[in-house]
């Protein structure tokens, strides 16, 4: 078994601003626990970040956001990966495990618009952007007069498309906006009966190669049992 506490840790992360914030957050939490540990963040781009012209359901699902990170761990280039739990597939591939689920941020969906103060105020034919089939179905059922179109890309890309006028409004996770200091962009916090959040929304999860007892022990203090139960 490798040493404990670890003298060095490599965290692999997607390179979007939000993903790097999440990796840096975990790094800082670990440094509080193990100040002598050297912690490096290895940035990488996933297929989910590269394929932006099609919906996730048509190109392989949420696993597109984690495959390259898992390859880095399998090859020994990284010790752990930080994910948004809602972006992970239900079943992890063989050879990997979840070591910790962190405390949950606000799990609600956010209505973001430069013209309208609430989802209910959008006029007939207004275009709403979302990358989620879940959100699309709920909006279409409750507001059939609206046009829901796919919206791909990282958080900054999505906000840029809204600001260019491609959409009248977009639906995003409150947690991501809060974490990047963009709470002011939220016009309405959507109630669960209007837009039911994903079970893992607002929650960070840490994935490790299976059998890494040193990483399990190192990450154990970060695990939040309440958030894990709420996301199960």
Query: How many independent structural domains?
Result: 2
Strand content is 15-25%
**What is the fourth-level CATH superfamily of the largest domain?**
Periplasmic binding protein-like II
Please mark out the parts with pLDDT under 50 across 5 or more consecutive residues, or reply none.
48-62
Q: How large is the radius of gyration?
A: 19 Å
Predict the CATH topology of the largest domain.
Answer: D-Maltodextrin-Binding Protein, domain 2
Quick one: CATH class of the largest domain?
Alpha Beta
> Which structural class best describes the helix and strand composition?
alpha/beta
Walk across the major sheet and give the strand order.
2-1-3-10-4
Number of strands: 10
Q: Mean of the pLDDT scores?
A: 90
Fraction of helical residues: 25-40%
The DSSP helix count reads: 9
**What separation lies between the terminal Cα atoms?**
30 Å
How do the helices and strands follow one another from N- to C-terminus? EHEHHHEEEEHEHEHEEHH
Q: Characterize the main sheet.
A: 5 strands, mixed
Shape type: elongated
Write the CATH architecture name of the largest domain.
3-Layer(aba) Sandwich
